[in-house]
Design a protein that fits this description.
The structure is a homodimer of 142-residue chains.
Chain A (H helix, E strand, L loop, with lengths): L7 H13 L6 H11 L5 E2 L1 H10 L6 H13 L4 E3 L7 E3 L6 E5 L4 E5 L5 E4 L7 E14 L1
Parallel strand pairs in A: 4-7
Antiparallel strand pairs in A: 1-3, 2-3, 4-5
Chain A binds a DNA duplex (25 and 25 nucleotides) through helix 2 and helix 4.
DNA sequence: ATTTGTGCAAATCGTTTGCATCTGA
DNA sequence: TCAGATGCAAACGATTTGCACAAAT
């Protein structure tokens, strides 16, 4: 596990982020947090993150990848995007927004909230609370 | 397999529907088609349909359920709804429309197309064609 | 010292597939 | 007749879990 590229400040920032969410700052978690939150918004699958971790020389098992992703998810550090029956996508953008999904590239692109305007939306049926609205625009490479 | 409840007219209608889609009208397919298309729009999972088939006394295996659902899907007799990472939903409504998904009841409700108006939608990125727009409104029982 | 996380391998769950056997056209 | 369907069980891929060990507070 190569932490040389990380400045102490970066490490501290990640530590704080984890602690603030009630998670212990362990080595694997710090390393994965760095991959995930180190640069802009990202979409990963368990497999893509595992692959990435391997390349960077992290000896993390798939189980830890899954556990960590799920912990980050329940801690609110990640959101889940449900667009593909074959696998789960995790998004570092936890604000409300929508997605393009490129079916034959297995790739997601964020759509800022203000670029989709729902001018008419049905009321929730009696006895139910609104939990969220997901808009997925499916694309195919031309 | 109890076909007593089916009038010859109903059987013929289903036969035609299958044939029109290039599918042979076999016993299991006719029976499942009857369950699926017999009464209004429906949402099923492989498991729920299997269960239902069992109750009606059909000796169909899970494999046949899956194969049949997928054949109906590619034949355009069913559509797929992707809302739950845990299982696939099939919808007998093959026209464009949207969905309520009740997370803790594992249940779908159709939303007619005109009840959701997207007044602003981003352009597809260069080089990509629009394949579809899915709106899922997630609900929780109050 | 105690609690929480990790790794591994085995277990689980939904879904798909190979193959021998049936069956509809 | 014979291409196409079925059933079963085995295979599969993604995800979860049990448990012994390791590390964090």
């Amino acid at each position: 596990m190569n932490f040389d590229a990380l400045s102490p400040e970066q490490i501290d920032r990640l530590r704080d982020k984890l602690r603030a969410s009630g998670l212990r700052s362990t080595r694997p978690r710090l390393a994965l947090a760095h991959l995930l939150f180190g640069a802009g918004n990202r979409h990963v699958t368990a497999e893509s993150l595992h692959e990435e971790a391997r390349k960077v020389g992290l000896g993390v098992s798939q189980a830890t990848i899954y556990n960590t992703l799920n912990q980050f998810l329940s801690a609110g550090l990640l959101s889940e995007v449900i667009v593909d029956p074959a696998r789960s996508y995790f998004d570092t953008n936890v604000t409300e927004h929508h997605h393009f999904f490129i079916e034959n590239e297995t790739r997601l692109i964020d759509i800022p909230l203000n670029e989709v305007v729902l001018s008419t939306v049905p009321d929730a049926p009696e006895g139910y609370d609104l939990a969220g609205v997901d808009v997925v625009i499916r694309l195919d490479r031309r």
